[in-house]
Amino acid sequence: MADSDSSRLAEIENSGKYEAETYAVVTGVNKGIGFEIVMQLASNGVTVVLTARNKVRGNEATAKLHQLGLSNVVFHQLNVLDQASVESLADFLSQKFGRLDILVNNAEASGAIVDEDELKALGIDSIAWLSRKVAKMVQSVMKYTYEEAEVCLNTNYYGVQRVTETLLPLLQLSSSGARIVNISSLRSELKRVPGESIRNELGDIKNLTEQKLDGILQLFLKDFKDNALEANGWPLMLPAYSMSKVVLNAYTRILARKYPNMCINCVHPGYVNTDLNWHTRVITTEEGARGLVKCALIPDGGPTGCYFDQTEVAEF
C-alpha cells in the first residue's frame, strides 16, 4: 500500500461511519474521480458496487481498494450504453442486496478528439483555463465528429437515464429515501448556452419533460450534422459535452420533482485533474470527489433538485 493511499484513507475514515447497512452503486469507475468516490463512500461504511465497462480494470480497481482494507467494495461489469448490461446489474443488486440506497452516475465521455501533444505544447496554465480566455487556442487542437457527439450524449445523458430508470424500483425500496448524484460540469450552466430560446426552454422546469429534453438533443444533433451550431445558438466549446450536461441538469430537476422522497442532485466536481480533461485541470481527484460524496451521504431532509458547484449550491 502506498504511503499516500494510507494517509488518504486515514483522513477519510475520520469523517464518520454509517451505522445501518447502506448500499451504493458508482458508475464509470476504474481510476480517477470515480475511484476516489468509491474509496470515500466505502471508508464511511457504505457497501459499494464499483462498476466499469472494462472487467480487467474494474477488478484491478476493486483489488486495490481491498488492499487498502476496504472489503466492502464489490465489482460488477456495467456498460451504460447497453440496456442488457444495465439490467444484469439490476438483477445482481436485487438478488444480493434487495434494494439500493445510493446511485452515483459518474460515467462520462468528452465528445472530443484531442491532440494531447499539441494541447500540452500550448503551455496553458491553470489560471488561463479557469479564466476561459483561451477557448480559441484550445479549439485549435480539438476535433468534433458526429459519431463522437452521439457517443457523448448516449453516455452522459441517455446512459444516466438508462441506469437510473432501470434501478429506480430498487432505489424506491431504500428505507430513508435514496440519494441520486449526477456528475455535472461548469459547462452545464444555462448562461453558457448562447441561444435564448434554448435557455428559456431548458430553464422552464415546471413545463419540462423528458420528451422535451429528447427533442432538444435531437435538434442539437441535426444542427451538428448540418454545421449549424453557431447559427442556431448552441455551445461551440465542447458542444456535445456541454449540451449533455445542460440536459442532465434539467433531468435531475425533473427526477427530483417526480420523486420528492429522494435526494436527487447534480454536482460540478471542480476542475479535476483526470483523463477526461487531458490532465489540464487544477484540483485533485480527492478534492473533486468531496462534493459528490457529500451529496451521496446527505442527511434526511437535505436539499434536492439542486446544482452544486463542488460543495456549494449554485445557480443552474
Quick recap:
With about 325 residues, the protein is α/β, with parallel strands linked by helices. It has twelve helices and ten strands.
Number of domains: 1
CATH topology: Rossmann fold
Low-pLDDT windows of residues: 1-16, 274-280
Q: What fraction of residues sit in β-strands?
A: 5-15%
CATH class, named Alpha Beta
Strand order of the largest sheet: 3-2-1-4-7-8-9-10
Gyration radius, in Å: 19 Å
Query: Could you estimate the helical fraction of the residues in percent?
Result: 40-55%
CATH architecture: 3-Layer(aba) Sandwich
**Inertia-based shape:** globular
The chain-level structural class is alpha/beta
Please trace the helix and strand order, writing H or E for each element: HEHEHEHEEHHHEHEHHHEHEE
Keywords: NADP, Oxidoreductase
Family: Belongs to the short-chain dehydrogenases/reductases (SDR) family.
InterPro entries: NAD(P)-bd_dom_sf (IPR036291), SDR_fam (IPR002347)
Pfam families: adh_short
Question: How would you sum up this structure, described in words?
Answer:
This protein is α/β, with parallel strands linked by helices. It has a single domain (3-314), classed as Rossmann fold. The protein has twelve helices and ten strands. The strands form two sheets. An eight-stranded mixed sheet has the order 3-2-1-4-7-8-9-10, sandwiched between helices. Strand 1 (23-26), helix 2 and strand 2 form a beta-alpha-beta unit. Mean pLDDT is 86; it is low at 1-16 and 274-280.
